[in-house]
Fold this protein.
Amino acid sequence: MQRIAEILRYLEDNFGKDEEGFIKMILTREDIANLVGTAKEACIRHLTAFKKAGWIHT
């Protein structure tokens, strides 16, 4: 979970966010999983948990 959060923060810091609060980069869940070095399924579970907690929106 921490690695995904770190990647999302890195992307936000380096690419910025648009007026709606989305990171200015199009990534699939698989792209994020590859950046983190984890399975796509694990990445999806963590992103779902982040979304339920209100930390991200998609």
The mean pLDDT is 92.
